[in-house]
């Protein structure tokens, strides 16, 4: 596989540098996945825009991490599974729920389970949900607009998951405890 560079602020294309600075300001570092995204200014700029929408939407951080971890596992992106396992635990997800998602199952919590199931179905069925799947999501206490907001989170995670699978960035030392081989 062709090796993609893990850029720094010095080595990144000029048009990618503002986005990398934003990532660094938010995370206190530049994650290796974002550093590989910087090879394409269009990709890193798009990622920043959708990232803002995901984290500025209606879902809590636990719910967002539930979708992102479910998507990473479903898309089999090892880097993203490690990151979202760590971020999910940091956001307060139960370790048993994180373990369940890493194994391809839904969390035990009713709402998080419905959210995870919907996200997985969206990916596996390429958006072709049946009425029963939507009804199960609504029965867990969510509203119709949130079905559509989950699509936005899935879109964001598709960017990171596909980038991670194509560029295969090295896993940061701080994420090694959450390494995943699927």
TrEMBL record:
Keywords for the protein's UniProt record, in alphabetical order: Oxidoreductase, Peroxidase
Entries under SUPFAM superfamilies matching the protein: AhpD-like
Stored Gene3D superfamilies: AhpD-like
Coiled-coil boundaries: none
Family matches, as InterPro entries: AhpD-like
Any GO MF annotation of the entry: peroxidase activity
Identification of the protein by name: Alkylhydroperoxidase family enzyme
